[in-house]
Write a structure and sequence with these properties.
Layout lengths: L1 E5 L13 E6 L5 E10 L5 E8 L6 H57 L2 H11 L20
Antiparallel strand pairs: 1-2, 2-3, 3-4
Length: about 150
């Protein structure tokens, strides 16, 4: 049920003087007020200003602006995450190639170690160092425990 109220010259509450206000009572017992002020702009012109007091409605333009803002924010977040993922992918690729190179170097080191420990290399080193190989070995045989009393 809508009632039109004309405010007198002294004004009523926060409403301006000479304003026409429309009061609507909603089911949740909140009061919604629409005031239209007439003010003189020039000698022959009159301006009509509409004010909504106590209303929290968003128009179509506001809804579109909020929707565009959300889409732009989601797009920026997507670009940030995609860029981060790509850069981390490149870093993982570089680390994997480095691991492969180190594994090859480790394998080459193991092969070189095996070659240096071979009997052929040991005999060759004894000749290069001028060592003499023993031809006849004498073994000492003891009867009974040696280290124990």
């Amino acid at each position: 049920m809508a009632t039109i109220l004309t405010v007198n010259k002294s004004g009523l509450g926060n409403f301006p003087r000479g304003a026409n206000c429309q009061l609507k009572r909603r089911s949740d017992k909140n009061l919604r007020v629409l005031c239209i002020n007439k003010r003189t702009v020039g000698p022959r012109e009159t301006s009509v200003v509409a004010k909504k007091q106590g209303s929290a409605e968003i128009g179509l333009t506001g809804a579109v602006a909020i929707l565009v803002s959300v889409v732009v924010l989601c797009g920026a977040l997507y670009l940030y995450q995609a860029n981060s993922l790509v850069s981390k992918g490149y870093a993982v690729g570089r680390l994997e190639s480095k691991i492969a190179d180190l594994q090859k170097a480790n394998e080459n080191g193991n092969i070189q170690e095996t070659e240096l420990r071979s009997m052929y290399n040991i005999e060759k080193s004894t000749q290069n160092l001028g060592l003499v190989s023993s031809s006849d070995a004498t073994y000492l045989e003891l009867k009974g425990p040696v280290a124990m009393k």
